[in-house]
Specification:
Structural class: alpha/beta
Distance between the termini: 34 Å
Helix content: 40-55%
Order of helices and strands: EHEHHEHHEHEHHH
Oligomer: single chain
Radius of gyration: 16 Å
Number of helices: 9
Number of strands: 5
Length: about 180
């Protein structure tokens, strides 16, 4: 079981891997604020919204302590209203729902997960694990789709994961910087 923030769902949508995540997880809890953020994204998030509605893997999760979410949000250096709420809900839900992992591409979400002793990974790790388990034959097309879809990704980390499966010295196939 894992909880997720918006960034991972949108990245998986870009990579065309929404349903593939079921290879790695039995349940993914989707916080209230994450669902709101996806709806507010409109048409560009339509496929991600459809996935969390149609696939049994995704469960709406509204059962968590909102005061703990507020306390977590109050620890931020930059208190911007309406920002980071999906990440905060995902971390608090993971602790309260006994989820083993938080899925987040957001640095602050990852920091919060680490502070709560939670395992945390993002979309490129999911792609790597799908490749490692044999579900994907290649990583590059999915990584390129995420970048082409306008998703900011850590290219050095992508290339490191990509390099683990790439045995030749053909550097022209590296993810572009």
């Amino acid at each position: 079981t894992a909880t997720t923030d918006t960034s991972v769902l949108v990245s998986l949508q870009s990579a065309e891997l929404r349903g593939a995540i079921s290879v790695l997880f039995n349940r993914i809890l989707v916080p209230t604020k994450v669902r709101e953020e996806l709806r507010e994204g409109g048409e560009k998030n339509r496929a991600a919204m459809a996935a969390i509605t149609d696939l049994a893997l995704f469960e709406h999760c509204d059962n968590y302590d909102r005061q703990l979410v507020k306390l977590l949000l109050d620890t931020r250096k930059h208190l911007r209203q309406g920002r980071d709420e999906g990440e905060a809900e995902a971390v608090i839900q993971a602790t309260q729902q006994s989820a083993g992992m938080v899925l987040s591409d957001d640095p602050l979400g990852r920091e919060w997960a680490k502070r709560h002793a939670l395992d945390c990974h993002g979309a490129i790790w999911i792609c790597h694990e799908l490749r490692r388990t044999g579900y994907l034959n290649e990583l590059r097309p999915h990584y390129v789709r995420m970048i082409s879809g306008g998703r900011r990704q850590p290219l050095a980390e992508m290339n490191a994961f990509f390099g683990r499966f790439w045995r030749t010295a053909n550097h022209s196939r590296r993810i572009p910087r």
